[in-house]
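Readers outside the structure-tokenisation community will struggle with the description of the input data as it stands. For illustration, here is how one protein appears when written out as sequence plus structure tokens:
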Amino acid sequence: MARNEKIRSIEAPPLNLHFFPESEENRNCDAVVLAFDEFEAIRLVDRLKLDHREASEIMGISRPTFTRLLEKARGHMAQFLVEGLPLDISGGSIKFASHVFCCRYCRAPFKWDGEGEAVCPRCGRSDALHAHASCGGSCVCCEKEEEDYRS
């Protein structure tokens, strides 16, 4: 029997959640799915140049688990690049940091620094709500939680 996945901490969602190839023939193919935790692993190690130990501590998982997660993420990225397939970033057992909000209009999660109004970088609207800790990126659960809170 498989163990439950430990929830991984994500600093912020990516700026873009979907990527499409230039080639028309591959636009309608099934997308490669890169989970939010896989995105975060790539961001921490390949972009911020942290070592695996530091990155695993930030995400709240063991170093061996982090290494497996990073290998899986790099495999998905290689498939996306080599085969020219669409890429969707979504899902995973995650929780966003406290400064992540969800846009009510386009349902995209985004990071807000607390300065001025929380404006979605994707659609430019300011109708946002605080992201549920385990949002997963769809923001539907955030809306549901707020409705339950108001009731």
Observations:
- The mean pLDDT is 83.
- The radius of gyration is 16 Å.
- The longest strand covers residues 100-103.
